[in-house]
Design brief:
The structure is a single chain. The chain has 265 residues and is mainly alpha-helical. The chain has one domain (44-261). It contains 13 helices and three strands. The protein starts with a helix and ends with a helix.
């Protein structure tokens, strides 16, 4: 009986101590910081996208936009991702590249579409970039490389556009840390399988780009900073093997062919 009373008293003391500690935390400050980060990310997303929009040739072909949007929509719906949070943009550029910007902006170069042998390969890369967005890798990278104070100053003071122009290179031509890349790869496979899309072509795409092909390498950006591309292809295959899904194509073969024609010279 005495042991039970002691245990009861200890539980009460622990509860009261925890309550007192929680009361000392400035929750309003924490919430304000979180709100500041959210507002900063939104402004940064607009600022970075405006930088690319002003300097690059944006594709305004409605068929192209609608086709990629349908792929993104399918992936988001099947994975319970808020589709409105993903803002897809297509730029006419030969580089094989796609990258994520703050606040859900997803940029795809026409070179990536042309380099993809099928819509599953393109879907794999799109899933990889959506994973970076959903896992908050974009802001983690920016805060590590630039710092939160600089990011906030970009959105509140003068000269933000000039800093954004330089900082944008971090997002469009530089890889994430190896651990973050693997996390995004694995999450991309999960997205593909959940959407009923075969993940193997995604691995095939990575493996093909790891080959020393001069015609490919001169346009390569998406994997040029990834010396472990072949390794990535291998663990993607290994991770996706247990799946026995009946796969479907994200868009019809006819639509895919029409999409490729839009960029043919």
């Amino acid at each position: 009986m005495k042991k039970i009373l002691i245990q009861g008293l200890l539980i009460i003391v622990l509860f009261i101590s925890t309550l007192l500690i929680l009361q000392q935390i400035d929750w309003m400050t924490i919430f304000k910081v979180q709100k500041l980060k959210t507002e900063t990310e939104e402004k940064l997303g607009d600022l970075f996208w405006e930088t690319f929009q002003n300097e690059e040739d944006e594709n305004t072909n409605q068929f192209v936009i609608n086709t990629l949007d349908s792929i993104v929509t399918m992936i988001c719906l099947e994975n319970e991702i808020d589709k409105e949070s993903i803002k897809i943009h297509i730029l006419n550029k030969d580089e094989i590249n796609a990258f994520a910007l703050p606040d859900g902006h997803l940029v795809v170069y026409s070179g990536l579409i042309l380099a993809s042998d099928n819509q599953e390969e393109l879907s794999g890369v799109i899933c990889h970039e959506i994973a970076h967005i959903e896992l908050n890798h974009v802001m983690k990278k920016l805060m590590k490389e630039v710092g939160l104070s600089v990011l906030i100053s970009m959105t509140t003071g003068e000269g933000g556009a000039a800093i954004a122009k330089e900082t944008a290179k971090l997002l469009s031509s530089s890889a994430f840390d190896r651990s973050l890349e693997k996390e995004a790869d694995i999450k991309a496979v999960d997205y593909l399988i959940q959407a009923g899309i075969d993940p193997k072509p995604f691995a095939d795409f990575l493996f093909r780009l790891s080959l020393d092909d001069n015609e490919i390498m001169k346009y390569l950006s998406w994997t040029s900073t990834h010396p472990d591309t072949q390794e990535r292809a291998e663990y993607i295959i290994e991770y996706s093997q247990p799946s026995t899904s009946n796969y479907k194509r994200p868009i019809s073969s006819e639509t895919w062919e029409l999409l490729k024609i839009q960029f043919a010279e």
